[in-house]
Amino acid sequence: MEQGYLKKASDAISGKRLDCVLALLDLDGFPTASPISIAKNQSIGWLAFCTFLDGSKIKRIENCNRASVCLFSADPMYNISLVGTIEVITDPEVKNEMWYDDLQIHFSGPSDENYCVLKFTTERYNLLFDFEEVKGSL
Length: 138
Description:
By secondary structure, this protein is α+β, with helices and mostly antiparallel strands. 20% of the residues lie in helices and 50% in strands. It has helices at residues 2-13, 56-63, 92-98; strands at 19-25, 31-42, 46-52, 66-74, 77-89, 115-129, 132-137. Strands 1-2-3-6-5-4 form a six-stranded antiparallel barrel. The protein is globular, with a radius of gyration of 15 Å.
């Protein structure tokens, strides 16, 4: 059963630029949630996001690299909740690989000094499809 749900989760998010919610702990230890778009992913194993290097997310990640990501849809109905760690990447090759055209609104290009990549690596998951739930670890 678990493998079937992992396949459903992979099919739901793979190869798509989806919006999701990224939850981090703030500097006072309280959870904060922010909408963000997935730049690329490898199923639920890892997800990459693009953001501002001088933004508040970076300070929160530097303080605590534990994070959670939630993707959801009403049609088809699913909820994919992931827990893991997140890192800030400024490597030019990675920034170039994760770049997509919609980022031009915020950045001058992949070499923009204020552009960085966040890589979330999943450690455990909670998947809900059609009101059936499965939990596990990667």
